[in-house]
Write a structure and sequence with these properties.
The protein is of the alpha/beta class. It contains 19 helices and 28 strands.
């Protein structure tokens, strides 16, 4: 979907916070690159794209250095200049000279976090593949986007069309608007296809999570690609500690060094950045955690895991054995039976097992948010054997039914117990505890970090990309916390205060845009 966010230039300038010196330098470098690509942010003028070699730049900095602020302000400036935001849920017919930008994240949760901050983000998968609409409902979508007359469609009343229009004007989502009219995704989306047309500018958040294949795919689509990443995080598994932006030349890297959120007195970020001190070993770091907990309720020195939090915010661990033990303890504490899942149990997508001939179905599931690493909540069995009803956390259309292979691992048992199994489909592991690697790109209000695992990494004296592994693990785990960090020091589990349920999942997904308006008519 292309959207024109109507933000006037004086208002945008007045609303824009003052940039620090390093942010301003990065802004100037990006503005120059955009100007060379035909997007003049100063004059708010656009020129047709010029053929030439693709360009990649990276904005790098640790947590709290202002990367997201810079990304958000760059998005606003691009919109004010007349650049269309492509969200991935529906792309209206655009003028041939229209310039486009897409704001992307590797995971649903990361995209959701950006949307809650007013940035119209979507996932990389959702932009690599585009939906194919039924022609009848495409007329409806074009009308909602402001590019056609109000349609007359059999089976849809005027009241249903009014509901769709009201939803779209509030949330800027075509699929959400059609759902408000009483339609299901299978009614108006016939399938998905690999994107064939190139876009202009790609702004990629959480770029430390990108693997080489994703990076290559994005370079095929975007002549100008800007990566926003944290070099202190963990590199993707299988990349030998390297991140895709590590290979960029020095002039392509824009470093942010000032820590803005730390200046606001955030004890969680204070701890994260204390890890950069070479003199801080694990015992001294735990003393810093204990001291922070004594003076600020946002840090908790916990002697047991809170089982109630695990239903929506997984315990972060390093070792798989720890993960399995915590999951078993969580299920036992909630009285989960050994041969079935309870509605409300958390899952993590571990991939999609479909042969090549079912490629369209794989694309469908991935485009709807069911990608590897997606956080999911089990709602109950589906209507067909082997199917499960699921809520995909952070997805724009979170409720789906999919052929599922759900694996529940138990300590000291080689083969997992499988409460739901289709012959093929999406595979899931339990999500009450996850490894710190899998947690990258996600944030939760409250985060529990299992400190004995961090201690084990410190005792092993392992390094990754020249830094002690325990420090990288601790840094990533700590910076997943938005409001409160629980540093769990003992292998104990508190009894749950409430049973598992799904009532909390009725909350509407964050809208894609702020101040979304209909596109100009297509030429």
């Amino acid at each position: 979907m292309q959207q024109s966010l109507q933000i006037s230039s004086p208002a945008a300038a007045a609303a824009r916070p003052e940039l620090s010196t390093d942010q301003a330098d990065a802004w100037d470098a990006l503005a120059e690159a955009l100007a060379q690509a035909g997007v003049d942010l100063v004059a708010e003028e656009l020129a047709p794209p010029q053929p030439g070699r693709a360009r990649v730049m990276a904005v790098l900095g640790k947590a709290g250095s202002g990367k997201t602020l810079l990304l958000a302000e760059m998005t606003r400036a691009l919109v004010a200049a007349g650049v269309h935001v492509v969200s991935g849920d529906y792309e209206s017919k655009r003028r041939k000279d229209a310039r486009t930008v897409a704001i992307l994240a590797p995971t649903n949760k990361a995209a959701f976090v950006l949307r809650t901050r007013g940035v119209p983000a979507t996932t990389i998968h959702r932009i690599l593949y585009t939906p194919v609409y039924d022609p009848e409902y495409e007329r409806l979508a074009e009308w909602l986007a402001g590019n056609g007359e109000r349609p007359v469609i059999e089976g849809l009343t005027d009241a249903a069309l009014d509901r769709a229009l009201s939803f779209y004007q509030s949330h800027g989502s075509i699929p959400g608007a059609l759902a408000a009219a009483g339609l299901r995704g299978s009614d108006f989306i016939q399938g998905w296809k690999r994107r064939e047309d190139a876009l202009d500018v790609g702004l990629i958040d959480e770029a430390s999570m990108l693997d080489q294949r994703q990076f290559d795919d994005l370079r095929e689509i975007f002549p100008l690609l800007v990566l926003f990443g944290d070099p202190a995080q963990l590199a993707p598994v299988g990349q030998s500690g390297d991140m895709v932006f590590d290979r960029l030349a020095a002039p392509q890297k824009l470093m942010l060094s000032r820590i803005h959120r730390q200046a606001e007195g955030n004890p969680i970020l204070d701890l994260a950045h204390a890890l950069a001190d070479p003199g801080v070993d694990f015992p001294s770091f735990e003393r810093l955690v204990r001291d922070a907990a004594a003076r600020d309720p946002r840090v908790v020195w916990a002697e047991r895991v809170e089982s109630d939090l695990m239903a929506r915010s997984p315990v972060l661990v390093w070792r798989n054995a720890t993960r399995v033990r915590l999951i078993s303890a969580f299920r036992a504490a909630h009285g989960a039976p050994g041969d079935a899942l309870l509605p409300g149990e958390p899952l993590v997508c571990d991939g999609i097992e479909l042969p090549l001939k079912h490629r369209k179905k794989r694309i469908d599931l991935e485009a709807r948010g069911l990608i590897k690493g997606a956080q999911v909540v089990y709602l109950g069995p589906g209507k067909k054997p082997g199917f499960a009803r699921l809520h995909v956390i952070g997805a724009m259309e979170p409720r789906i039914s999919a052929a599922s292979i759900i694996k529940i691992e138990t300590p000291e048992v080689d083969e997992p117990f499988i409460p739901s199994a289709a012959h093929m489909g999406a595979t899931f592991l339990h999500g009450a505890a996850v490894t710190i690697h899998k947690a990258q790109g996600s944030q939760w209000p409250d985060v529990q970090v299992f400190a004995p695992d961090i201690s084990a990494a410190a005792w092993m004296n392992r390094s990754e990309a020249g830094l002690p592994l325990w420090k990288r693990l601790a840094y990533v785990a700590i910076t997943r916390a938005q409001d409160r960090l629980l540093w769990v020091t003992k292998a104990r589990l508190a009894r749950p205060q409430a049973g598992l349920g799904t009532d909390d999942l009725a909350v509407e997904a964050a809208p894609l845009t702020l101040e979304a308006q209909a596109d100009e008519p297509a030429a």
